[in-house]
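pipeline stage [seq->struct] | target=Gamma-glutamyltransferase family protein | organism=Plantactinospora siamensis | residues=546
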Amino acid sequence: MSQPRPPLYAPNGVVATSQPLAAAAGLAALRRGGTAVDAALAAAITLTVVQPGSNDIGGDLFALVWDGDRLHGLNGSGRSPAALDRAAVLAAAGAGTEPVAALGGGQASGPAMPARGWLPVTVPGAPAGWHDLHERFGRLPFAELFADAIGYAEHGYPVSPYVARAWDLAVRVHAGLAGPEFAEWPRVFTVDGGRAPRVGERWRNPGAAEALRRIAGSGAEDFYRGRIAAALHAYSVRTGGLLSGDDLAAHRSSWVAPLRVGYRDHEVWELPPNGQGVAALLALAILDGVDPAGMPPAEWAHWQIEAVKLGFADTHAYVTDPDLMRVSGADLLDPAYVAGRRALVGARAALPVPGEPGRGGTVYLCAADGAGMMVSLIQSTYLSFGSHVVLPGYGFGLQDRGLAFRLDPAHPDAVGPAKRPFHTIIPGFLTRGGEPVGPFGVMGGHMQPQGHVQLISATVDRGLDPQAALDLPRWYWHAGRAVQVESAMVDGPGGRDLVAGLRGRGHEVTVPPDAAVFGHGQAIWRGPGGYVAGSEPRTDGTAVGH
């Protein structure tokens, strides 16, 4: 991890993203008089070009928007094809192609959705999400927000270090894929069909420029009911996919009411399911009943890890398409239920199981403007480069969100037609006494709720600024009693005592060879003189302001 850096202070507006060129695109929108939503969208659209392995035009989007008075939520995730069901998956892919435990949380292994190809492809929600956010909160012309992204796609940009490393790994993954649906990926996303672009090497994607022009000029209509939709339908039919033009035409974003829990004298907000934000909220609600003052660091870390385990156990047991959930997010956050879950935390590391509540590859960015509007936005194609299915002529890949579906027909998230799957990507927002503090997020699959818990605790319990909170070494739990910690945690002051304390409580602590598992975050807090922001030190991220 790089050396700690100071936070950014800015009086009028901030954009924080995982890639500097995208942050600059967002800042340019602010300087032209755009809102925080305009800035967030300019950055998000640019990210599809400059960080393509983590997100793309063919991905999904979620957002929280503080409009100056209250918080709004947008669920921009897409549904499975109408032709997708368990029989279709088993017939096309066979059983046992992926371990269910890949989702995290300690699920039993068994038959699962394949990770690549057409079967895990769901309808992309990002283009519609861009349009819907702009329609409600934007000020600049919609097409203007695409200018930087189109320019970089058409004329090229030098690839940044973190993006180059991740891209190289994706090329190795693709080498093991066979089938006509994978043929376009190396033509678009490799150099001479064989390698990833190197650090600083200029990379172009003229097909993506064409797709972005059509989305910009049609308000995303072309993607769902126009020429791009027709091309997707035809390519799906030609190469064995289930995605149809009717699936695309039926897509709609959903405006939703965010969920919240109190944490000390603050409130933490997440989107309701089908995302996993409820895991972070349940963990924080459990921890809100515990006073860390005077605790040894290992004991407080133990409480955080055990609370996260319980949050994940319930999330993986119940979260699916919100229209089909057996319990609601509010049920999982009921104070009496939370108290019962808190009582399960003991002195030793446990194996989490779901309770019985009452029945009732990602990029993250944030932006704020001078009028007080703030945006927390996250978009993704899930695994690196998603499905590795790329639409010829339009230069973008499709997400593989259907990988989250289960093949167990009794599970709430069982694979089925026209259904939103469990989602890992979650934007967060923090308030204090109902007044906005700001947007935050930590991307990285199963790490995301854990990152939210650690960032909020660092902010509220320790009073750290956003950059200092993001700089802190992190821990990561995936399954069982295994916990990974960053080397900086072990080597820092008191680190060896902390690790020894965790091991003494039954946690199986290891240090992974790199920091990729610990996620990447951004945060912006509102202060008396403007904004203070932090950006992820583990990647190419930056925060810029004016």
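stage status: PASS
auto-comment: Residues 255-360+430-435+448-521 form a domain with the Serum Albumin; Chain A, Domain 1 fold (CATH 1.10.246.130). Confidence is low (pLDDT under 50) at residues 95-109.
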